[in-house]
Write a structure and sequence with these properties.
Blueprint lengths: L4 E4 L3 E5 L22 E4 L4 E4 L14 E4 L5 E5 L2 E2 L5 H4 L7 E2 L3 E5 L4 E5 L14 E5 L7 E5 L26 E6 L4 E6 L1 E2 L9 E6 L6 E6 L13 E6 L3 E6 L9 E5 L3 E5 L4 E2 L2 E2 L18 E5 L5 E2 L4 H4 L7 H7 L19 H8 L40 H19 L14 E6 L26 E6 L2 E8 L7 E3 L10
Parallel strand pairs: 15-19
Antiparallel strand pairs: 1-2, 2-3, 3-4, 5-6, 6-9, 7-8, 9-10, 10-29, 11-12, 12-13, 13-14, 16-17, 17-18, 18-19, 20-21, 21-24, 22-23, 24-25, 26-28, 27-28
Length: 500
Amino acid sequence: MNDGSLFADSSSFYLYGGGISVAYPAVGAPTALPPDGVWQYDLGSGQWSMADLSGIPVNRSILGMSAQSSSSPVAYYLGGVKEPASDPYFWTLPGATPYMDQGLLLFEEGSLTFQNYSTPGLNEHGTVGAGFMALIESIESHGVLVAFGGISNVPGKPMNVTDEYDVSVQWNLSSVSVYDIGGQAWYQQNTTGDIPRWRYSGCSVVVSAPDQSSHSIYVFGGWGNTFGGSDGGVYVLSIPSFRWIRVNQESDERSRHQCSLIGNNTMLVVGGITPNFNYPQPTWDASGCDTTSMFAQGLGMFSLNNHSWSTNYDPVAAAAPYQIHANISAVIGGTATGGASAITPEGGFSQKALGVLLTGNQNVKTMGISGSPTSNGTTTPKHNKALSVGSIAGIIGSCVFGLILGLVLGLVFFVRRRQKSEHHEAAEMNGQIVRFELSDGKDKVFELGATVVSEKPLPPTPDEKGVTELEGHQWVQEVVGNASPPGYESATSSTGQRIF
């Protein structure tokens, strides 16, 4: 499966979601989907098997964003796209087209269960795919998720292969969404500074100042629809000031790669392709994979301490404490160890609750915009639609090995670090699982190439089904089950990953 998400605990890897290539069967791509489920790799026996999930069966999605806790056996998967190349049921529907799905999935690795939290407050449509997501665990008791970039569209609306070129579905990086995991509330905040051009299918890692006064989300690469619209710069989104800072301009363009934090201060970049002209390569060969000295072996390392690239890993240097580079402190104030003076966004926080959450200060400056959490614990944000699915379909073949290698390498580092830390029991959540199934799609099927996740419950019973009209199309809507904490659904759900 291409573009799946790989999670880990101290004993196993878990492969979740993804899809097969339907664009270029000549390169040896599978022509049939494997059964739905989560694959588990046991580190002790060295064997793969289907995870023994209970409750509602898992359905694969593609194009979602994922994050793994470093302190507890819990992972998160946000948004995604339902697409025939990932979902066996969808695969059987003639003429079915991709559509975006709502939801934030929490995967409890110990019990092998999924919970699904609602996401109407994420953005205008409550959907996102092929964007960026960072987990900052040191904020509050459960941490926060920060999501931005990628695409967003009406849930259940059919998508065409050229939709990602429509500015109306692109989530501009001038705004981000923050999810309070403990409080189950979404907030949206405007950003300022050297805001990157819109992009999708890049990668990010997050590190915090030693004194926790700021948190730096490092963003590298991504595809901007055209070669001219992409860049190889490394950017930092500093939290809680929400200011973008470009910290490196010497990088090569890269898309569809993976990033992992290794040691305390090194960003490992694995796999991916080099965008060329107005489409990504390779199409039939590996010419777009390892084309530069920076990624000669499909691996690149970026030091977060000195903001430079290397092709060699120095474990001694990587073990040194993270220090805030002068490029960042020049904007947010403070020193290499912290003490940031800019802890409020320019113009203020969108809501007081967000400012209090991120700073602990009850007297934070706000923008004066009213807003309160909705009944499901979310606040309605305003931002551009995210992009659609589809175009870069057959670019998987020769770069898949590098991507899988990157996921495994990153998780090996993660597991070793995790084994040294204390495991915490994951918080129970609850809510409802909602699935939309296209009943009359007519567009041509294309493979998506991004990271996505989505949930799918058991086949509906007659009393669970209801037909709803959505923008001239008929959709079958299912609502299944309840969950625990506010807005989550306790059920074994699914997800997948990948975008263009």
